[in-house]
Write a structure and sequence with these properties.
Length: about 250
């Protein structure tokens, strides 16, 4: 009597990349709970930690060949918490709680913008130009809000004097996420290839500047990236119009 081997396929998930995703999710959750206890300095650092972990999970999955549909969906849910809900709630608790419905509106615009941005990104994975993102990426939008709070805390700026600036900034980041502006994905940069010595020195100096004043430099860095979207889009449209005239 012979027995056939079972062909039942075991289901499971890849542990390593999902550990990074879980760490990013926890960082977003921790940012919210820290803000609820008035530890806003910890909140903003937690959001930046979530950004680092979010950047690592995809790279680890590609390096170890452990990409999966589960990982992609889990990453989107983690991004929703860490880069849409967390920065909006931290900003609301820090600056908008005295603004009533206006503050709720601004925080919701950022949250909804993040949700719509992630949904659009997931539906355009196969058709989108890999060199560009359509709309401001949610991690960059979260970094702008976190960097602004960190900058204000570092300089002890009064919340009353800057709360309307924070309000406008929160609404703009939410709208930029659902805009049609093109943002560079930097995926065309070859990190494995050789670069001139000058480029290596420039990178090291840039890291040194950021480390010396992380509050100011991180905010300016991501604010500049947010501004680059409309600029790049206008330049591309102008070139397209000029080529049609020719």
């Amino acid at each position: 009597m012979t027995f056939e081997k079972s062909t039942i396929r075991r289901r499971g998930i890849y542990l390593l990349p999902n550990l990074f995703t879980t760490g990013a999710l926890f960082s977003g959750f921790y940012a919210i709970t820290s803000a609820m206890n008035d530890h806003y300095d910890i909140s903003v650092v937690a959001i930046f930690v979530a950004m680092i972990l979010d950047g690592l999970d995809g790279r680890v999955a590609r390096l170890t060949n452990t990409q999966s549909e589960f990982g992609a969906q889990y990453d989107s849910l983690s991004d929703m918490v860490s880069f849409a809900i967390a920065p909006a709630l931290v900003m609301y608790l820090w600056a908008f709680s005295t603004l009533g419905k206006l503050g709720l509106f601004a925080a919701f615009v950022h949250t909804a913008g993040g949700a719509l941005r992630l949904a659009r990104f997931n539906t355009q994975l196969t058709s989108a130009d890999k060199r560009y993102f359509q709309g401001l990426p949610s991690p960059a939008a979260a970094a702008i809000l976190a960097g602004f709070i960190w900058l204000c805390l570092e300089h002890n700026w009064s919340i009353e004097s800057i709360k309307y600036t924070a309000l406008i900034l929160t609404i703009i980041t939410g709208l930029l996420m659902v805009s049609n502006f093109r943002y560079s994905s930097f995926k065309e940069i070859d990190l494995k290839g050789k670069v001139p010595f000058f480029v290596a020195i420039s990178v090291m100096l840039s890291i040194a500047f950021v480390m010396a004043q992380p509050q100011t430099m991180l905010f300016l860095l991501f604010l500049g990236y947010a501004i680059s979207g409309p600029v790049v889009t206008l330049i591309m449209r102008r070139k397209r119009l000029q080529s049609r005239k020719v």
